[in-house]
């Protein structure tokens, strides 16, 4: 191991729950090529697990939890945690998820770049890690408890300075869209990480660390991160930059709903309408003004996009961490629930049970459409009617899902698996890619977003690389990222412009997750997007901060290669699990139905996706990625990226012709 490691911690903690043992691995060999966080997780999972065949809910699966290279430092918004695993929800099987809060930095303070967990405990267990001491603790008393009580008990036992990561009853009962929670406001949602915890009889992690993070040039690092923070908070920095900062600070992500809806991108009524919904006032700003208690933030964040709220009176008393845009749209817009109190209640109940709100909302909105079409009736849901706007039924059904009681057993499989046995016509109502229903994005609105959602390895999700310059509608930055005028045209099917745009953002989005920093201010929401030179400034901050932190001179190109490498690993895994070109095609609704709705930019209704033109974009995207016409990575491209091992694994599975 290197004598002194800077920025990173230089160690990976490997825990085997079956044998109740652990060991330490040197991680310094990974930093140059994989940074840390998400990219590091990817290569570890790829090497450790037979990713082609392992059942996500078996002991052979791993869950790898990390922070990232800049996590836990003075770099603004450096409190992220990344988890990677084979996923039980989406049929592509790729699982990764990320959240804010304070847990990620504690991994580093405990002395590690990543914690790898495999095996299965014989009894319910939680891990209490104090620096080098790993304690396998009995969790029988915690099993059956919600995420709030579980965290409270862990803090009472191990001190308020401990950082906790827990599952609720949903994870224990292997609900395929169970999530992992930290504190009151942070969810590692999507793809079912909570069920992977549950399958291992793992209830929680509690960490306490006392190690410093050594910085290569601490003075320069502090100065640059201070300047970066000033730029983030500067209202004069740029119109879009300043507007995003203000909206996030004041109202969090729900405050951006109307900005997102400008091109029709907000889905309404299970993607049967889109754009601006005239009944969403209580969901987007009113709740924060009326019921909000205080703004909150993750580690070292000057934006504080989170909030806590309390409703003391009425039929829906509740309190907790405020919903994000995604939870708001999932229960509100997609299910036509306009009463803010009911959406807050659903959000709180799901958070306590450890249930992903996006996938839960998708189960309900899909069932509402199936009910309207006469394809199911209330007998399907134990006599409980599931109809548009019916929040009381949703509140009743959530516990059945969590405990897999009655109809809840099939609802716990998620919208795609729930609907598939009902036949092709029913499946048309499921707005999914690769078996995972989309987050709050109507992808017919912008062609780049359609491509990104369709090819996303874990299924329909914006955080895999939604092209910001396109949906924020900043043509100059779209040109900067691709060299093509057409990249910024939301309706253009220009193959190379759209393919390069999506590839750029996919690679870029791997980086914040690998550095342990938040995507909101660094690529996803429109900050640094007013002018091309602002994007250059952001790159300069990344490159210099990484050098001052680690002593490693990464160039912008090196960083984009790390993003590309991480993305190619995701692709190699899902191809080995059977994903084909047809799985990269838009879902049925996108290809066959136009979408009505009010929005000021772009055509009304949104046209269906032109299949012929889309196929040409997909061809070009594959070509740029270095994949075959079937979407399989080629040996040449993998070797260029230093991924011969991935090429060999694909070849061993008979998926590579050797070119
Ligand atoms: S912008 Fe929001 S999610 Fe990101 S670090 Fe800040 S508080 Fe956390």
Describe this structure in a few short sentences.
This protein is 42% helix and 13% strand. The protein is of the alpha+beta class and 659 residues long.
List keywords for this structure.
single chain, 659 residues, alpha+beta, Aldehyde Ferredoxin Oxidoreductase,  A, domain 1, Aldehyde Ferredoxin Oxidoreductase Protein, subunit A, domain 2, Aldehyde Ferredoxin Oxidoreductase Protein, subunit A, domain 3, 3 domains, six-stranded mixed β-sheet, four-stranded mixed β-sheet, 42% helix, globular, binds iron/sulfur cluster
Mind explaining what this structure looks like?
The chain has 28 helices and 19 strands. It has 659 residues and is an alpha+beta fold. It has three domains: 11-208, Aldehyde Ferredoxin Oxidoreductase,  A, domain 1; 246-436, Aldehyde Ferredoxin Oxidoreductase Protein, subunit A, domain 2 (Orthogonal Bundle); 446-530 and 555-652, Orthogonal Bundle (Aldehyde Ferredoxin Oxidoreductase Protein, subunit A, domain 3), CATH 1.10.599. The strands form six sheets. A six-stranded mixed beta sheet has the order 2-1-6-3-4-5, sandwiched between helices. Strands 8-7-12-9 form a four-stranded mixed beta sheet, sandwiched between helices. α11 (325-333) runs parallel beside α13 and α12 packs parallel to α14 (391-402). It is globular. The model has no long low-confidence stretch (mean pLDDT 96). The structure holds iron/sulfur cluster (SF4). Iron/sulfur cluster (SF4) binds at residues 77, 79, 100, 248, 297-298, 301, 303-306, 518, 520-521. Residues 77, 79, 100, 248, 297-298, 301, 303-306, 518, 520-521 line the site of iron/sulfur cluster.
């Amino acid at each position: 191991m290197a004598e002194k490691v800077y920025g990173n911690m230089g160690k990976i903690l490997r825990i085997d729950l079956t044998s109740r043992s652990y060991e330490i691995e040197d991680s310094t060999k990974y930093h140059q090529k994989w940074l840390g966080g998400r990219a590091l997780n990817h290569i570890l999972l790829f090497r450790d697990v037979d990713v082609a065949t392992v059942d996500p809910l078996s002991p052979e699966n791993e869950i790898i939890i990390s922070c990232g290279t800049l996590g836990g430092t003075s770099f603004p918004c450096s409190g992220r945690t990344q988890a990677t695993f084979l996923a039980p929800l989406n049929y592509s099987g790729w699982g990764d998820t990320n959240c804010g809060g304070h847990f990620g930095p504690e991994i580093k303070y405990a002395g590690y770049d990543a914690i790898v967990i495999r095996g299965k405990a014989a009894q319910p267990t939680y891990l209490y890690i104090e620096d080098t001491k790993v304690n396998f603790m009995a969790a029988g008393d915690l099993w059956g408890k919600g995420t709030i009580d579980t965290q409270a008990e862990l803090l009472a036992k191990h001190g308020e300075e401990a950082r906790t990561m827990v599952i609720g009853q949903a994870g224990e009962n292997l609900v395929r869209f169970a999530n992992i929670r930290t504190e009151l406001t942070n969810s590692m949602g999507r793809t079912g990480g909570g069920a992977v915890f549950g399958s291992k009889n793992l209830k929680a992690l509690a960490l306490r660390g006392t190690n410093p993070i050594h910085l290569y040039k601490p003075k320069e690092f502090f100065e640059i991160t201070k300047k970066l923070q000033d730029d983030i908070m500067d209202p004069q920095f740029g119109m879009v930059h300043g507007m995003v900062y203000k909206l996030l600070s004041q109202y969090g992500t729900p405050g951006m709903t109307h900005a997102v809806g400008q091109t029709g991108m907000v889905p309404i009524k299970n993607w049967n309408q889109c754009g601006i919904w005239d009944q969403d006032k209580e969901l987007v700003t009113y709740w924060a003004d009326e019921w909000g208690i205080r703004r909150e933030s993750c580690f070292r964040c000057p934006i504080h996009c989170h909030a806590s709220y309390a409703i003391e009176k009425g039929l829906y008393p509740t309190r907790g961490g405020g919903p994000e845009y995604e939870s708001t749209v999932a229960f509100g817009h997609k299910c036509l629930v306009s009463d803010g109190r009911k959406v807050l209640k659903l959000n709180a109940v799901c958070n306590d049970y450890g249930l992903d709100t996006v996938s839960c909302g998708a189960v309900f909105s899909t069932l509402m459409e199936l009910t309207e079409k006469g394809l199911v009736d209330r007998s399907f849901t134990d006599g409980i009617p599931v109809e548009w706007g019916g929040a009381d039924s949703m509140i009743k059904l959530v516990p059945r899902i969590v405990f897999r009681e009655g109809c809840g057993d099939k609802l716990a499989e998620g919208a795609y698996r729930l609907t598939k046995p009902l036949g092709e016509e029913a499946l048309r109502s499921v707005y999914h890619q690769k078996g995972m229903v989309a987050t709050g994005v109507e992808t017919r609105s912008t062609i780049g977003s359609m491509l990104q959602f369709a090819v996303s390895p874990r299924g329909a999700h914006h955080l895999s690389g939604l092209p910001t310059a396109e949906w924020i509608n900043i043509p100059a930055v779209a040109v900067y990222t691709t060299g093509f005028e057409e990249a910024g045209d939301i309706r253009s099917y220009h193959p190379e412009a759209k393919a390069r745009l999506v590839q750029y953002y996919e690679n870029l989005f791997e980086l914040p997750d690998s550095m342990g920093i938040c995507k909101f201010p660094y690529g996803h929401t429109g900050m640094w997007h007013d002018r091309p030179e602002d994007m250059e400034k952001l790159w300069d901050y990344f490159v210099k901060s990484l050098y001052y932190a680690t002593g490693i001179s990464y160039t912008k190109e090196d960083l984009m290669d790390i993003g590309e490498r991480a993305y190619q690993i995701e692709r190699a895994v899902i191809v080995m699990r059977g994903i084909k070109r047809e799985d990269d095609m838009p879902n049925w609704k996108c290809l066959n139905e136009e979408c009505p709705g009010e929005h000021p930019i772009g055509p009304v209704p949104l046209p269906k996706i032109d299949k012929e033109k889309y196929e040409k974009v997909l061809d070009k995207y594959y070509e740029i990625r270095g994949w075959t016409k079937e979407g399989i990575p080629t040996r040449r491209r993998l070797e260029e990226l230093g991924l011969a091992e991935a090429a060999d694994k694909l070849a061993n599975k008979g998926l590579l012709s050797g070119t």
